[in-house]
Amino acid sequence: NAGTEADVFICIYGERGDTGSRQLLRSQKPKKFLKGQTDIFAVEAVHLGHLYKIVMGHNGLGSGNGWFLDKVVIKDPITDLDYTFLCHRWLDQGQDDGNIARELTVAGASSFPGRQELKLKREEIWAAEKWKFQEGNTLQFYNRITHGFICLHPDSRVDALGDKKSKYGTVF
Q: What are the 10-residue block averages of pLDDT along the chain, 172 residues in total?
């Protein structure tokens, strides 16, 4: 009883957006979502870039609607990358924690190319900006509410009232 007759949906999230909720209608198998079966679906969408999570679930309708989901593998035909989302849990109101939808993140996220790129950009930005945080510098942040500058002084004092006409402050 690990399969389901309920309507199953997926929402795929990538660095460029998401697909929105899509019902999985046509499997390459004659009967979909049977126990121990691997179903294959084609989901048409704009290219989302590198994928990082999915939401997988069902509507809870029909007899035997509980479903044990092992994993989801998404093949990106443009980049030829495979993204694996591990679940190993029930989507069933009467089993596990009672949820019929699960948010799953990509397995092996540390090897996710988008995260590697983000890490490199952070390092690059820090290399360019770290001088601001050297000992002896005063940091100023513009407060849009008070229209003044909040100053963090080297001796740990904070001027939260903010100088409205700081000659060193820059408003972006």
A: 78 92 84 81 89 91 81 90 90 86 82 60 75 80 79 83 60 48
Determine the distance from the C-alpha atom of residue 18 to the mean position of all C-alpha atoms in its chain, rounded to a whole number.
10
pTM: 0.60
- Nearest CA among 60, 56, 69 for reference residue 6: 60
Task: Give the integer Cα–Cα distance in Å for 3 and 67.
Answer: 5
| CA proximity to 51, closest of 8, 119, 108, 114 | 114
Q: Domain 8-116 is in which class?
A: mainly beta
Quickly tell me which residue has 């590198």 as its tokens: 50
How far apart, in whole angstroms, are the C-alpha atoms of residue 166 and residue 148?
A: 8
Handedness of CA 125, 131, 135, 137 (dihedral sign): negative
For the beta carbon of residue 51, count every other beta carbon within 10 angstroms: 23
Domain with CATH 2.60.60.20 in the chain: 8-116
pLDDT in tens, 43-80: 889 899 899 999 999 988 877 788 888 899 999 988 88
Spatial CB neighbours of 97, under 8 Å, sequence gap ≥ 6: none
Distance between CA 140 and CA 152 in Å, rounded?
6
Distance CA 147, CA 171 (A): 10
